[in-house]
Amino acid sequence: MAAVLLRRISPPIPLCNLRMIATCRHVQAGQKWRTSHGQAPDGLRYGPLTDKPDWSYADGRLAPETARRKRRMRNRLDVAQRISQLLTEIDEAKENTEQRSSSAQGKY
């Protein structure tokens, strides 16, 4: 009985009060400008807001690293190692090509 009475008294929720996340282009304002100036497209991937600690102690000590910051540093180290490995492979391939071309020229 009370539930039926409450349904009659409480008004329905208007649709204008619902919050939704918009993913259209105008929400990503400034993305073109940031990428053209060498910054992250969303402003949160790298830079002082994500790389530096939020606070420090009054005596100057840094705050302990968060798990997210540690994960970002690990990811960046992995990417750097992968880049270094690929560059080494490119250098080796260039050397092999030069050796093959010089040995092929010596035969003729």
Notes on the structure:
- There is one protein chain.
- With 108 residues, the chain is an all-alpha fold.
- The protein has helices at 2-9, 31-36, 48-51, 67-107.
- The longest helix is centred in the last third of the chain and has 41 residues, at 67-107.
Shape from CA axes? elongated
How many helices does DSSP assign? Answer: 4
Taking all Cα atoms into account, the compactness measure Rg is: 29 Å
Amount of helix: 40-55%
Helix/sheet category = mainly alpha
GO biological process, one term: mitochondrial translation
Protein name: Large ribosomal subunit protein mL52
Keywords: Mitochondrion, Ribonucleoprotein, Ribosomal protein, Transit peptide
Family: Belongs to the mitochondrion-specific ribosomal protein mL52 family.
Summarize the structure in short.
This protein is 55% helix and 0% strand.
Give the helix/strand layout.
Elements: H1 2-9, H2 31-36, H3 48-51, H4 67-107
Provide tags for this entry.
mainly alpha, 108 residues
